[in-house]
Amino acid sequence: MSLRSHGIRAARALAWDLRSAHKVERALASAGWRQHSAASSTCWPTQLASSLHGSPSLREFSTKQETEASPESNSADGSDAQTAPDSVSANDEAAGENNEASASSPADAKIAELEQQVKDLKDNLLRSLAEQENTRRIAKRDVEQARSFAISSFAKSLLDTSDNLSRALDAVPEDLRHDHDSHPVLANLYEGITMTNEGLTKAFAKNGLVKYGAVGEKFDPNKHEALFEYPDPKGEAGSIGQVMKIGFMLNDRVIRPAEVGVIKAS
Known about the structure:
Elements: H1 3-30, H2 34-41, H3 44-51, H4 56-148, H5 152-171, H6 184-206, E1 209-212, E2 224-231, E3 240-245, E4 247-250, E5 253-256, E6 258-264
Parallel strand pairs: 2-6
Antiparallel strand pairs: 1-4, 3-6, 4-5
Helix pairs in contact: 1-2, 2-4, 3-4, 5-6
């Protein structure tokens, strides 16, 4: 057999195989495997075409498959290129929001810290002002009390002198106090003691020291010291009936209570 006949037989066998492969590809395309068959067919038919020295039918087949596969690949590339910018922009927005949140949180914390410091400083300032005002008021009160009661001890030492002068005046009989004819010495002595007692009382009043405690006053336990009680139909119950010792007050403060006898209900 000649070489020509062998070549013809080989060409017919390859053509039969090519028809069978084309039928298989159509079946796979109808089942959803078009893209896969196109990719696989573009490999071995191209080699077969090159081996048959550029057969026109084989070139059409390979070119058709490539053109059919190219729109799908282009559409896939286009969709990928379209979705890529969207994902990048979304990532950029998320990153920007995270950066803004991370930048704002330290600023808010710093503002809150400064506001707390201002609040604490204001509270400390108000407390300091209140403490200074209290100190000033207490100091003023202490100064006034020291000025008002600085002579307390000196006044107490003169109370006995005033009591003695009062006793001396009470010791002179009433009918002889002004008898300058029969008892001129006693009358003059009485006048002298009276003048001394009045001068001492004026000096006491000038410095805020006053006498209190008289018969008929209402008994006050804060000012009077009750030595005894006795019934007296002429007096009112609860009032002072007798004064044993005069009381003294220095600037409205009792430095010695009056010793009295109180009338009780009969």
